[in-house]
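To: structure desk
From: M.T.
Subject: fold request, one chain
Message: Could you run this one when you get a chance? Sequence is below, nothing fancy, just the single chain.
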Amino acid sequence: GGGGGDVATVLMMMMGSSSKIQTYAVASDRLLLNGAPPPTIISPDNVRSDGRALRQCRSAFMQTGAVNAAAGSAYAEFGQTKVIVSVFGPRESKKAQAFSDIGRLNCNVSFTTFATTVRGKAGQGLQEKEYSSMLYRALEGAVALHTFPKTTVDVFALVIQSGGGDLPVTISCASLALADAGIVMHDLVSAMSVGCFGKMLLLDSTLQEEGWQDGGLMVATMPSRNEITQLILSGEWPSSRLSEALQLCLDACQKLGEIMRDCLKEAAVRNQT
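Reply: Done. Structure tokens follow.
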């Protein structure tokens, strides 16, 4: 938890006097190439290949109620990234934790076989396991587990198309699906990523951009409470850019939080008519 400023301070302390921070929190099968990105990614006028400015998010579409059989569900489309999340429960826990005073949250992320460029089942399985654990960590602080003791809530996320920023899109979509299922939460969780290209910062990177970036930062927040639920740093970062990248993510998460709240309000109006 804690406000954005606290994290920036912690990050700066972590770096000490070194000019670059290097943390490899995220396993990547892509080769990170230092040096200038190819002109097809960023034009000399600082326009990205999809026509966006450097600090502009992709157009987003989000909708709840995508899966009728689930207790709650949501669909999210950010550029070429498409994710659908179903929530089931609370249902009785089969595990030994059945006597626990708090509920259990299970998160499972999978990719359709055609969604990603990761070769082979082993590589895809590893990525799914990693994303499932990251999704859990991003959501657990926002879900009021004490409101469903002795029971389990299952979150199943399916990445239909991998187009970059798969994890932040999945986190935001899962949070919306939990709200749609009526699960009590302290706040929605909105997530965003920033890529570092030398001294340039790119908000909400595409898959192609992620393949060329020197470093990546993914932040998941509870926007109304101004709290960070998860922060993942990867690759190489010039220390002068890290605090700015964090602020960029936090601002984008605030705006995304508003879009998500509007989405829930629209759903409530639809259900009344």
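Reply (cont.): DSSP finds five helices and ten strands in the chain. Let me know if you need anything else for the meeting.
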